[in-house]
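Trying the structure run again after the queue cleared.
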Amino acid sequence: MTALPDFLRIDLKVRRVFLDGRNPAFYSNPNRVYAALHEHCPTFYWAEQKQWFFTGYDHVNALLRDRRFGRQILHIASRQELGLPEPELHLKNFDLAERHSLLELEPPEHTRLRTLVNRAFVSRHIEKLRPEIADLAERLIDGFEKEGKTELLSSFADIIPVTMIARMIGIPDEMGPQLLKWSHAYVGMYMFKRSREDEYAADRAAKEFADYVRRLIAERRRQPREDLLTHMIHTEHKGQYLTDDELVSTTIVLLNAGHEATVHQIGNSVRVILESGLPATDLFRDEAATERTVEETLRICAPVHIFQRWALEDVEIDGVTFKRGDKVSLILAAANLDPAKFPNPLAFKPDRQEAPNLSFGAGIHFCIGAPLARLELNTVLPILFRRLPGLNIAKPPSVKDVYHFHGLERLDLSWGR
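Done. Tokens:
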């Protein structure tokens, strides 16, 4: 057996893991820990998080699709029944923005909301954006190519996803920096490092974000346009239209989910490609090679590591008994490294022909923005490596303390023949 990292302790008798999620040795290289967990204890109770976690590919894949588990629990039981605390007043704006989020709902509400939005994100519609994405990438590179160096996140990765999702929704490009600020504060609620100050920041961001979206909704009602927000306002499903609260929640989740993970993934992908030493001319030689390269970067360095589910009934999984109202966590990034599915899982091998990665989830909550994220990655990465021959990492990159998201603080690059 491989020796455990000194910051990871496992009690095999009770499948209990002791691991500080804020330890830089962990979040800087979580794949090493995931490999150890696969070897020693793929299903475990994480003592610090007070919750059961699954890392095995088959378990994670099945649980994402298992209707005995869901993103929502209060549609079938009260807080009193489940022993859950009352909502906290200092998070009332955040809770309101989340109340109708696609990420947090179960059918039938989830079905209605997703049906109204899904058409805009199907691959055949998203594919039409390829020239626009390519043009944006080319223009951004024009701005720093002659300098021979750049910090890629701020000059490139931050800009493309937020610009594209904002344009789809109908938000002007100049709002991009403000959307990023709101989004970074908002998603702070989902990170292991979350503090009281993070909660206040998220609630402020939720209020400002929602107020802006409400003004935009009023504008689109007065002056409809050819954009997703107008579509959501004026399209009905079985005689029902989205309420303003539903429109706000849906717009916020589309903006956050439509760019946050892709920003991380552009940086992660460039880093893993450069560190692999494999020639970009081979990795991006044609469309098929590009797709394989992108999927392998998604497998080995996924931008979002954990999805959570509530047990909607009493159920036993892998010898662990869950009662209705228990919460479980699925580590997608670890499932992507399961040696039972991916031989030599820590190696970057774009020629793999194994199981599909689970980085976008599965089941009814499969990421609605996956076609857009994949298109952006498949479009901008080849352009970046073609335009900047001799690309290399100028300074050792550091990973953000934002687990269970996974992204870089900055990625300093240089190039030249």
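The chain has 19 helices and 14 strands. Worth checking whether this holds up in the mutant runs.
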